[in-house]
Write a structure and sequence with these properties.
The complex is a heterodimer.
Chain A (H helix, E strand, L loop, with lengths): L1 H17 L2 H26 L13 H29 L4 H6 L3 H4 L5 H35 L8 H21 L4 H27 L3 H13 L1 H13 L5 H8 L11 H23 L4
Helix pairs in contact in A: 1-6, 2-3, 2-6, 3-6, 3-7, 3-8, 3-11, 6-7, 6-12, 7-8, 7-10, 7-12, 8-9, 8-10, 9-10, 10-12
Chain B lengths: L2 E12 L2 E12 L3 E5 L6 H9 L6 E6 L2 E2 L3 H5 L1 E4 L11 H11 L5 H11 L15 H12 L6 E5 L7 H16 L3 E5 L3 H7 L2 E6 L2 E6 L1 H4 L2 E8 L2 E6 L6 H10 L4 E8 L2 H8 L6
Helix pairs in contact in B: 3-4
Chain lengths: ~290, ~280
């Protein structure tokens, strides 16, 4: 079993490598990080006088650091999600229609193991990618502005878990949708999740309990959004005063604290989505 | 002969449309069974059920006594689909390594070399699939199906993309498999090919088994044709045993005999008779 899982994971990784997916992602990521470095440098340099004569009201370094690092996290989540979707694109229905899947499925490995192995490959790689880009952005932020988030590791791990959820959702949709439809649906769900997060923050800002409740519920239905909001919150969870208040409304989605309940729910949610995918795959005629 | 593959009262319907209607079929050890039928007759569905790719609506299939689709049954089969694709970035050797790992074969490099030699692709071990012709890919597909020395080989139109030389290679391969006691279920539209290599033939039409038997047993006498000085005469219904008597009678009547031929129906005649009016 372990050997078969390792074989399928290796197959999926080599497929990504040979299709030059990784090369494209690497080049894009380097481009993003280079731009981020330039942007961070000028943002920290020019924001020093931003807070006006009384710097204690708004800490310019924390404000600039959290804002641009929040943007980096937004981009990291997006790029990681794109990678997760591409690594799971057409894995079931698409590959079955093209005839790639059948020679593998008739082997003793079985459908469930095959599916979970493909998930492990996609989620593992996307999560590793997110952690790498997060770490690089963190290093750039520290180098350019000597600012670091209140929690170093937590936000990165939350983003890694978020892209794993996107990979699981994409895998589930691949069991019943064609390749194009799968891509469209997953990205629409992704967009809907982030929009719901923004709505929750707007609701919070204008004291609309209904709006906040809708956004909050959506972040549990699509926990990758809840994890993203939690990771944003972890950046400035110890930042007080006006700086903390302003940053909570961040430009790339609002931050919201999450307890251990969200993490447990995220794992349970991923397991549930994978179980649904396995059932759908096992019932599918190929 | 113990059945390597046994289908019992096998039924399959797709959204209310029957693809198989109570099919009973067996393939014995080392037997080569040719499965014939028009497009849409249910041949591929039967093969896919035997592989565990499709779930039956009723009845069942056993492979070496195990339910089709179970891990032990899957471990005992090799399969080449009619419509298949291998990853283009893979070389022939890499593809076989992948399948060796998936089926737990310990054959290593020697097994891969032997299989590539069997399908005459030794020269292409390092060639990427995307640069191979369709015929080469089909032969590679057969080699892939043979990884792990399966007891039952299920081949769905394995020669559809092959040129005459490729078909001859596959025929030789099938005969080699018979020598190795491997059971083969061969789906094919090429009647001449099936007639040449198969021990038994089963004809499916509209999801039902309509004819089954050895090619020679399925053939029926069509008569004795005699060419005399007065022209060609056909004695319908007469067979091999009646031929001397017919000739003797004609000679006694003063006819000069130039040629005598005992006519029997070909597999094509049998097939056309069995599937009359049913074309996919």
């Amino acid at each position: 079993m372990a050997r078969s899982v390792a074989t399928v994971i290796g197959y999926a990784l080599r497929e990504g490598l040979r299709r030059r997916v990784f090369l494209a992602v690497l080049l894009l990521s380097l481009g993003f990080l280079a731009l981020y470095g330039v942007g961070a440098h000028f943002a920290f340099r020019d924001a020093s006088g931003f807070a006006g004569p009384e710097p204690k009201i708004l800490d310019p370094k924390a404000f600039t650091g959290a804002t641009i690092f929040g943007m980096a996290m937004f981009t990291t989540l997006f790029l990681g999600s794109v990678l997760a979707v591409f690594l799971t694109l057409g894995i079931v229905r698409g590959d079955a229609e093209s005839g790639l899947l059948q020679p593998l499925v008739v082997r003793p490995i079985g459908r469930t193991t095959l599916l979970l192995s493909r998930f492990l490959a996609a989620a593992g790689l996307s999560a590793a990618y997110v952690l790498a880009v997060y770490g690089a952005a963190l290093a750039i932020t520290w180098q350019t502005g000597h600012w670091a988030p209140d929690h170093l590791l937590g936000p990165g791990l939350a983003l890694a878990l978020a892209v794993s959820i996107v990979a699981a959702l994409s895998l589930l949709t691949s069991t019943f949708l064609s390749v194009t439809a799968q891509g469209i649906v997953v990205f629409m769900v992704y967009g809907a999740g982030l929009t719901a997060g923004l709505l929750a923050q707007i609701g919070h800002a204008i004291h609309s309990a209904t709006l906040h409740s809708i956004g909050h519920t959506a972040s549990w239905i699509l926990p990758f959004e809840g994890l993203y909001a939690a990771s944003l919150h972890a950046l400035i969870s110890n930042t007080s005063g006006l700086t903390g208040v302003v940053l909570q409304l961040g430009p790339f989605g609002g931050s919201e604290a999450a307890g251990p309940g969200l993490i447990i729910w995220a794992f349970a949610y991923t397991a549930g989505v994978l179980a649904l995918a396995a059932v759908a795959f096992s019932r599918r005629d190929l | 002969m113990a059945a390597v593959l046994a289908a019992r009262a096998l039924r399959k319907s797709y959204r209310g449309k029957d693809a198989l209607v109570g099919v009973d079929l067996e393939v014995g050890a080392g037997e080569l069974l040719g499965l014939l039928g028009p497009n849409g007759a249910g041949k591929s569905t039967l093969t896919k059920i035997a592989c565990g790719l499709v779930r039956p609506s009723g009845g069942g299939v056993e492979v070496l006594g195990r339910p089709a689709g179970s891990p032990l049954a899957r471990a005992a089969i090799g399969y080449l689909a009619e419509l298949f694709r291998f990853p283009g970035w893979c070389s022939a050797d890499e593809l076989l390594v992948l399948h060796q790992r998936l089926c737990g074969s310990a054959g290593g490099a020697s097994e891969r070399a032997e299989l590539l030699e069997l399908v005459e692709l030794s020269h292409a071990a390092g060639t990427r699939v995307e640069t191979m012709s369709k015929g080469m890919q089909q032969r590679l597909g057969i080699a892939q199906a043979l990884v792990g020395s399966p007891g039952l080989l299920l081949l769905d139109e394995p020669t559809s993309a092959l040129d005459p030389v490729g078909r001859r290679i596959v025929r030789g391969l099938l005969e080699e498999l018979r020598r190795r006691d491997v059971a083969v279920l061969l789906n094919s539209h090429l009647l001449s090919e099936v007639e040449l290599v198969c021990d038994r033939v089963a004809i499916i039409a509209d999801g039902k088994l309509v004819q089954e038997g050895r090619p020679a047993d399925l053939e029926r006498p069509r008569g004795v044709e005699v060419e005399t000085a007065n022209g060609v005469r056909l004695f319908e219904g007469a067979g091999h045993d009646e031929a001397p008597e017919i000739v003797a009678r004609l000679v006694a009547e003063g006819e000069r005999i130039h040629r005598v031929e005992v006519l029997s129906s070909t597999l094509e005649d049998v097939y056309l008779e069995a599937v009359r009016g049913r074309t996919g």
